[in-house]
Task: structure prediction
Amino acid sequence: MSTQSTSPAPYAPGPSLPESDFTGDGHSAATIGDAARDYVNRLRGGDMGSLPALLGLAVLFTVFALSHDKFLTTYNLTNLVIQSASIIVLAMGLVFVLLLGEIDLSAGVAGGASATITALAIIDHGWVWWAAVVAGLAIGVLIGLTIGSLVSFLGIPSFVVTLAFFLALQAVPLKLIGAGGSLRFNNEVLRGLSIKNVPVTAGWIAAVVLVVGFAGLSLWQHRSRMAKGLVHKPTALVAVQIAVFSGVVLGLTFMLSQNRAVNPEIFNISGIPWVAPVVIALLLFWTFVLTRTRFGRHLYAVGGNAEAARRAGINVTRMKIAAFVICSGMAAVSGILAASYTGKVSPGSGGGNELLYAVGAAVIGGTSLFGGRGRAIDAVIGGLVIATIPNGLGLLDQASYINFIVTGGVLLLAASVDAVSRRRRSASGV
Amino acid sequence: MTNANVEAGAQPLLELRGVNKSFGVVHVLHDVDFAVYPGQVTALVGDNGAGKSTLVKVIAGIYGRDSGEYLFEGAPVHVSNPRDVAALGVEVVYQDLALCDNLDIVQNMFLGRETRKGLVLDDMSMEDRARETLASLSVRTVKSVRQSVASLSGGQRQTVAIAKAVLWNSRIVLLDEPTAALGVAQTRQVLDLVRRLADRGLGVVLISHNMNDVFEVADRITALYLGQVAADVPVSSVTHNQVVELITAGRSGDLGIRDVAAATI
Result:
């Protein structure tokens, strides 16, 4: 989905160009070979994007597939998709704060608090599911608004504000649910997000629409850029991108459309789990916001150089608050998805590893901890990597301390890759 | 060449009259008169602490004035913040380059003023206009307008920052030490660009410590000495040494402040 990235080409002024012309522009990597060389140069320069995450995913898949024969079954892989959903959504929210070079340590427990409100609205007050979800989202937005205001008006470092919220917000579910208790989360629609599937035919139709839409949009953009003589990618690269996208979408749809029941003769469990369309819709929406709207452009600007953004007339305070609101709002969605997966909300919901998993996911996916770089898709790729670890280790029946060590190690590794590639970037200026 | 305009009494595009500015007990600007003429490069020179930056910030609307008039095209205008000044068509290119490293040239040039089609950014028309502007300034040193600014050299960044100011049909561009951190070739590019801006009819203010730069592109020199205007003269009427004396001592022969001893802070 890197429609924004273009490949710089070597400066080659044409001999016949008049002296006053703005030459060397309108160039693009002419062939796929040039594009590949540009890509390698960018990698060398430290612009890694999601490559470390994809490599990590490949390594984890290989290791787990070799050590356990159940890992690559469609049943387990579908499980992986469902498990990763709440991490992905939380990470997607965190991308916005990380873009500004801030951090939100309270996102996990904000999700827990929001899910508690949603569950209580349904159980105690008999609200219809969507109204309960709106209530949960409103709590998330309110939390984000408070954090954002404290950070931008009082100038307290976000690390401290959100650490305080991390501690304080754990009181919400504990008070409302009571120590040792838990709320059932068995609303048909919300619980169904994790345990029910899109009918196979509808799943295929949606997949085909997605592929055709992506191909159409890419080709239309490519053609109009070429027609206007603007910077554009080589046609072959566009074709490859469309092919890869179609392969991934159709391949996943095919996998999820298989009957994955343990006893396939008796039961038929097939189709895309409902959480997947939710995650995809959020991904498309936030990708659009980040790359195609003024708001998104300004977010990047504030993350890249807040002073320059301020001088350009951007309201930096408002952008900061908005980022925290989006983060906590997405945390609420993530909390509800997590409750949907486990079927309950307990006082400890969101207070465990969730946040570090999500930060790890965003950073592994290619979002920088230093601000200014990050995409919504990073959260999806990184979230899959992070979710694979507990999934695979769970199959291997490892003690949970191993899980902690491995996840901590992965987070540290991702942060190191981020720091090193940032150094290389500033050295090479890519 | 254009000095004739001034002597013939051409109207300044922007004029400050009798501006005073104090920070607490520190009186930074004393009755400063300053004028910018269309099609001319006015060099603003002075030692550290002479009040150059304060004057620029007063012009830019960042600082208010304690007293004094602010005239645009001969008419007094009321400016109270940077947005008012930008609305007049006055752009300031700051020394520490207000560019975002993580955005490309087009995105930086349109930062804060993006064109849209409905809700969606109109990237294609922005790219077109950015290229047009760069071409009209004869910028030939950047590879692609879609290059990220992080990959540009100091001179190229300065060029983009200046082009950004020009893109909005500004009337006056103030450049704060545009060549301070640049090498020889890059300084050349930027000075050429400064000259081209003036040739297009813009009023250009060049703040510089470098006398070579000043004598190369400026039409007029305004020298500040401890917050007072020591001289406001056509560049052709002074020598290198005279300007240095004006900067360091406040006077040089007949030029300068009569009673230098009184010109203390």
Observations:
- The radius of gyration of chain B is 19 Å.
- The first strand of chain B starts at residue 14 and ends at 23.
- The first helix of chain B runs from residue 3 to 7.
- Chain B touches chain A through 41 residues (CB under 8 Å).
